[in-house]
Design goal:
This protein has 45 helices and two strands. With about 1050 residues, the protein is mostly helical. InterPro entries: Ctr9, TPR-like_helical_dom_sf, TPR_rpt.
Length: about 1050
């Protein structure tokens, strides 16, 4: 159906044309003349029938001379019309229609007016041939009207025309009409099979193709091509290949089998199931077959499309562009047309002709909006032309409905575009969309970033080559890590780990990846792993050439020093910082860390010097100034800290958030700790609280999410610093308790929001203070416990450790320790322990030392009363004396309790030992009784066995002496041996040993033997019933006795011959 020739005629054929009754011309159909003029004259002179004209035209068509066939058909019409034989013209019109359809197959369907390499502007377009074909069809139908002509030829021709024009429903009806007349028509069967294949009804199409092959093995086009296509669609690839190979063997010059086998070989060359050498062989074979197919039919779009891809990969862009344009102009289907546009665009893109490439990508996308390659190519061109919003829109259109496509390639590209900030676009929203897209990519490609990628026992489909390229793209994983940085450390770690794996697979691990992974481990508290990664990263960086490796080494060495510092290895940390400062003396961060280490060792002067050196080199560094502010505050230098902060705000940045918050804290701290009770001092404290609130408010105005400023204002509210400070700077109001509770609740609302932004122990502590002020003690305890458990390793961290220079805190600690000891000595001895008493005494002694130091403090202004400190010290001496007395009482009490406990424990043990001894005796007695009983039973069984043997011996002797008896009558049902004696039969002789009978048993026959096997057991137990086997010697004529007694396990038959001794006994 796709060819340009009719079936080839068999060899050695001739056609006789009768000129006159005496003259006949024989034409060799296998050697037709290429000049048909003489043949036309002969046909005209002979006034040949129409079938002769069509026969010769068909033979020329079969041999590839389509022009001569058309000339003969046209000559037939002219001659027959001149002779008046128009009624016989329909076959000629149908032949001309088929010739036009055949010409249409070799004509371009679309002519590119701006084609660069394959211009077809001089060619006749396919639709024009179809128009001429339909005209001939209509003329044939008109000529056939009213004539008794078979409609098969008309139906077939029209069906073929409809099939070529993709009028599938009409073509199917036409083919069915032909098959209704002639069910074995091969052309109609082939046409119907093609339609069913197009409709994806592969099984039905396969049956029809096989039927055609059975009816006509040499049919053309070869039904084996269709059979192979159906097998391929049904996933029977081996059978499909075999069908095509057979087709190529039968028809070596046909292009269809060559092309299909070439494509199959190219697919095999991409399969990982073959070895490298096998893939190379498949590739070479596929290239050869595709080239051969294109040479056989250079106007076939599928062959041109396949060959274009091969040339495009080889970089032969001019030839590839010519083939791509050939594909576009001769394409039969939308899919092939789209492929032609895509390959044209790819060639033009490779030659930097971006505008023309964009045009072809757009045409491909308009034809198939869901085509991934078209959208990706168009987006790439738009990026090249700096049209980023257009590229994002293109990819969004592909990934969203109604053409929703879950392409991992498009998702990854769109995610990368959205991940990079663009002016005028909400970066936070774009970042969120980029994460969603990368999550989709991770799920589709089962990347390690997806937490559900590893499923036990779950079989996954193998990734495509493009999917593997994305999965192995280093930059994709780095970008994923960057998107989740600061929000999901687990995903960041997985992405960086995969990126490091890819980097290591390339042979040169990137030190930055190792360093970043080490930083994640460091932040996660895995110091050993972090240190190992930092050391590895330094090793890799040292192997790099140029300044790039030196820059990496500097940052990595600083991180290594930090992890040494966190591990408590101060020596190694100091050496690392010294080495870093030796290389880069102006490395401010290293100096600050050294200063921090000196400060932790109470070497404030050395730390101060280092900070000053850093300030001299980078005085405008706000981070450095913030650290110096913190250092001054921690060392109880509030006034220098205040001056330094105000200078920072005035000279460097009046909008610096850290300086504003620090200024607010300093103002509040100084106002709260002031003990000046004069009116001027009270006014100064009020102004301090007010300025503190102003600083916090300004910080919140600049950054509404500043948690430190919000917490500062909440503290101001809770302590009523802008009011009377709970009576500290003014008289108490009548509604002071209600006011205190109201302020605490207002502050709690703020602390609850701060907790969401700043997860710190101070927030929970402040909430505990507010709950305490609101008399909600349970929730206050809960907040304090949360702070202790979550942030201080479940320990009660004294405020002194946080502010070691705050003397008010020191005074409070001494008071609490002294009060604890005082309360403990009033507790009854049964509710306390020696250990608790000893701890209370130690704390009381510590409180004495603190009170002594506080009372001896020479500072002019202190946040406590020195006289009260001295009085507390004297009072503490008495508390310690009472503690010693209570300690002795407690020890005596615990010793007595311990003695009572030991006595009770010993008594319980003695009772347990006594019970164990009784149990052992009982078990031993049972064991002896069981052994004795077992021995008695054994002896009884042995005695029973001896008696049984004696009884059997006596029975045998008695039988030998007994004379032969007449045959016995059949025993009555349930009758015993004794009952038979009572009915007139001779009674058996009773054996001795009646002592074995049971008491009260009237019958002695079988019961005697039952008692023999009782084993002498207790009479209450049932005896094992086992009947004695009795042997009876009978003659052959004796009738068989049927016993109604229970069946015996073993029966004995009589002897075949009776010995002489038996006869004598008779």
């Amino acid at each position: 159906m796709n060819g340009t020739r009719s079936p080839s005629p068999p060899a050695g054929r001739t056609l006789d044309i009768e000129l006159t009754s005496q003259e006949v011309i024989s034409i060799d159909l296998d050697n037709l003349e290429l000049n048909p003029d003489d043949l036309l004259e002969v046909l005209k002179d002979s006034q040949s029938k129409v079938w002769v004209w069509t026969k010769l035209a068909a033979e020329y068509w079969n041999q590839g001379h389509l022009d001569i066939a058309e000339k003969l058909a046209q000559g037939a019409i002219d001659t027959l019309q001149a002779n008046g034989s128009t009624s016989s013209l329909p076959p000629t019109y149908y032949l001309l229609a088929n010739i036009q359809i055949a010409r249409a197959r070799g004509a371009p369907k679309l002519i590119l007016q701006d084609a660069r390499q394959d211009s077809q502007t001089k060619e006749k377009q396919r639709d024009l041939y179809y128009k001429e074909a339909i005209q001939f069809l209509n003329q044939g139908d008109r000529a056939a009207s009213g004539e008794a002509i078979s409609p098969v030829l008309a139906f077939l021709t029209r069906a073929i025309y409809q099939l070529e024009n993709r009028q599938m429903d009409d073509a199917l009806r036409s083919f069915d009409g032909v098959l209704a007349i002639k069910p074995t028509n091969a052309v109609a069967l082939l046409g119907k099979a093609r339609i069913l294949y197009t409709r994806r009804q592969y099984a039905q199409a396969l049956r029809l193709f096989q039927e055609v092959l059975r009816l006509s093995p040499s049919c053309k086009p070869d039904p084996r091509i269709g059979i192979g296509l159906c097998f391929w669609a049904l996933d029977h690839k081996a059978q499909a290949k075999a069908a095509w190979e057979r087709s190529l063997e039968v028809n070596p010059s046909e292009w269809a089998a060559q092309l299909l086998l070439g494509l199959e070989a190219m697919n095999a060359s991409k399969s990982d199931s073959f070895a490298e050498e096998d893939r190379r062989a498949h590739y070479i074979q596929g290239t050869r077959l595709i080239n051969l197919a294109f040479k056989t039919n250079q106007k076939n779009s599928a062959a041109a499309n396949a060959l274009c891809e091969l040339l495009l990969r080889k970089g032969q862009y001019e030839k590839a562009l010519k083939l791509a344009e050939r594909t576009v102009q001769f394409a039969d289907t939308l899919t092939v047309l789209t492929e032609g546009y895509l390959r044209s665009a790819r060639v033009l893109q490779s030659t930097d002709a971006f505008t023309d490439a964009q045009k072809y990508y757009t045409l491909a996308k308009e034809g198939q909006p869901a085509n991934v390659l078209a959208s990706l190519g168009l987006a790439q061109i738009q990026l090249k032309l700096d049209e980023i919003p257009s590229a994002i829109h293109t990819l969004d259109t592909l990934l969203q409905s109604p053409n929703e496509n879950r392409s991992a390639e498009a998702s990854a590209m769109l995610a990368s575009l959205r991940a990079n900030p663009r002016p005028g676009v909400d970066h936070a929203q774009e970042k969120m969309r980029a994460r969603e897209l990368y999550d989709r990519v991770s799920r589709a490609l089962r990347l390690p970033e997806d937490p559900h990628s590893q499923l036990n026992g779950h079989q996954h489909k193998a990734l495509t080559s493009s999917g593997r390229n994305i999965a192995e793209d280093l930059e994709v994983h780095i970008e994923m890590a960057r998107l989740w940085q600061g929000e999901n450390s687990d995903k960041v770690e997985r992405a960086l780990t995969e990126a490091l794996r890819i980097s290591e697979a390339g042979g040169k691990p990137d030190p930055r990846l190792v360093n970043n992974l080490g930083a994640l481990k460091h932040l996660d508290g895995k110091l050993d792993q972090a240190r190992a990664m930092y050391e590895t990263a330094i090793t890799h960086a040292s192997m790099m050439e140029g300044g790039k490796g030196e820059g990496m080494s500097t940052s990595i060495l600083y991180n290594l020093a930090r992890v040494y510092e966190d591990e408590g290895n101060e020596t190694m940390a100091r050496e690392a910082y010294d080495k870093l400062l030796t290389r880069h003396p102006e490395y401010v961060d290293a100096k600050l860390r050294q200063a921090k280490m000196f400060s932790d060792l109470n070497k404030s002067n050395e730390a101060h010097e280092l900070i000053k050196e850093a300030l001299n080199s980078q005085g405008s560094n706000l981070n450095l100034r913030a650290f110096y502010t913190h250092f001054l505050i921690q060392n109880n230098m509030a006034t220098p800290a205040k001056d330094f902060v105000f200078r920072t705000l005035k000279e460097h940045d009046k909008y610096d958030l850290y300086s504003l918050c620090a200024a607010g804290w300093i103002q509040y701290h100084q106002a709260r700790e002031s003990r000046d009770a004069s009116p001027k001092g009270v006014d100064e404290r009020r102004r301090g609280f007010q300025r503190s609130a102003e600083f916090y408010e300004k910080a919140l105005h600049l950054d509404p999410m500043c948690a430190v400023a919000a917490q500062g204002l909440a503290i101001v509210t809770a302590e009523d610093a802008l009011g009377n400070l709970g009576g500290g700077i003014g008289p108490l109001a009548p509604d002071e308790p209600q006011k205190r509770i109201r302020n605490a609740r207002d502050a709690l609302d703020v602390f609850a929001k701060v907790r969401e932004a700043m997860d710190d122990g101070s927030v929970y502590s402040n909430m505990g203070h507010c709950y305490y002020a609101s008399d909600d003690y349970d929730r206050a305890i809960e907040s304090y416990e949360t702070a202790s458990r979550k942030f201080y390793n479940d320990h009660n961290v004294p405020a002194f450790h946080l502010h070691p220079h705050d003397k008010a805190i020191t005074y409070n600690i001494a008071m609490i320790e002294q009060k604890a000891a005082e309360l403990l000595i009033t507790v009854p001895a049964a509710k306390r322990t020696v250990k608790e008493m000893q701890k209370a005494i130690d704390q009381a002694q510590h409180a004495q030392r603190l009170f002594a130091s506080l009372a001896a403090d020479k500072s002019p202004v202190v946040p406590y009363n020195k006289e009260l400190a001295e009085q507390r010290k004297k009072y503490g001496d008495g508390v310690l004396r009472r503690c010693d007395e209570q300690l002795a009482i407690q020890r005596q009490h615990e010793a007595g309790a311990k003695a009572k406990l030991d006595a009770a424990r010993q008594k319980r043990q003695e009772e347990k030992d006594k019970q164990d001894a009784l149990e052992r005796e009982r078990l031993a007695s049972h064991r002896e009784q069981a052994e004795k009983l077992a021995e008695e039973r054994r002896l009884a069984r042995e005695e029973a066995m001896v008696w049984t043997r004696e009884v059997r011996a006596e029975s045998d002797e008695e039988r030998e002496r007994k004379p032969k008896k007449a045959p016995r009558k059949k025993a009555e049902a349930n009758g015993s041996g004794d009952e038979g004696a009572a009915n007139g039969e001779p009674a058996k002789k009773k054996r001795k040993g009646g002592k074995l009978r049971r008491n009260g048993d009237p019958e002695g026959g079988d019961d005697d033997n039952e008692n023999v096997f009782s084993g002498g057991e207790d009479e209450s137990k049932p005896a094992a019933k086992k009947r004695t086997k009795k042997r009876v010697v009978r003659d052959d004529e004796d009738e068989e006795v049927t016993a109604t007694a229970p069946s015996r396990k073993k029966q004995f038959k009589s002897k075949e011959y009776i010995s002489d001794s038996d006869e004598e006994m008779s």
